[in-house]
Amino acid sequence: MRVVVRSASVWGPGLPGWARSVAVLRDPSLWDGTVVAAPSATALPPNERRRAGPVTRLALAVAQEACALARVEPSEIAALFSSANGDGGVIDAILNALCTPGADVSPTQFHNSVHNAPAGYWTISHGSIAPATAVSGFDWSFGQGLLKAAAEAVAEAHPVLFVAYDLPIPGPIGMVRVTQEAFACAFVLDPDPEAPGLATLSMTYDATTSEGDAPDSAAFRQLARGNPAACGLNLLSALARRDEGCIRVACFNGQLKIEVSPCLTAPQS
């Protein structure tokens, strides 16, 4: 299975968007870990912007940047949103309300509690009727989501926007399900082998092992251990360095083996 990565986006500590993160992804010794707030979800109408939580705003920020860099119309591209935790902050608030005598569950909180809320906000913000899917696969959510997005792109013969994101969970749940930092990344995947892009990915699924490659740098290894979406750091680094090589990403009950080949025709800036 082969797709072209037309663009990539990233947002996390010390990684404030693709353009400002390329140098750090190429040389992780430059990473300072500074926490950066995600940009406002300006594509959302004002009412929806007020309702959207930080998880949705983060997912939409990287999705918007990836589409802009690939020069694709957000209203026309199919999208796949992948998150291990969903909106843990909303779930914590709802559980607190349920455990508090006389407290009510906010309709807005209930609206945001469903796992596909970011996908729904994405389609609302752009008036899109293109398919938008939400998936989750615990610590394997990045690999599972990337595999499904690439499979859809190839099977349906159209580009797919893939977005992976997770935030720390507050409250008692967060003490059991520890996520250390906010992180998100996005990629526009195109099945057209002639499409301009950063690299071509040739993917195979291996069911005999479920091990993935950890980042080479200690700082990025810690970030990847602390957030399931940060399992995309190896791929992001390879795209930034325009490296040719093999990346292994853990999937549930298997491994996604990705051969990365830089494109000769780069996307226009």
UniProtKB/TrEMBL annotation:
Residues 37-207 form the Beta-ketoacyl synthase-like N-terminal domain. GO terms for molecular function: acyltransferase activity. It comes from the Bacteria. Pfam families: Ketoacyl-synt_2 (PF13723). Gene3D superfamilies: 3.40.47.10. This is Beta-ketoacyl synthase chain length factor. It comes from Acetobacter garciniae. The lineage of its organism: Bacteria, Pseudomonadati, Pseudomonadota, Alphaproteobacteria, Acetobacterales.
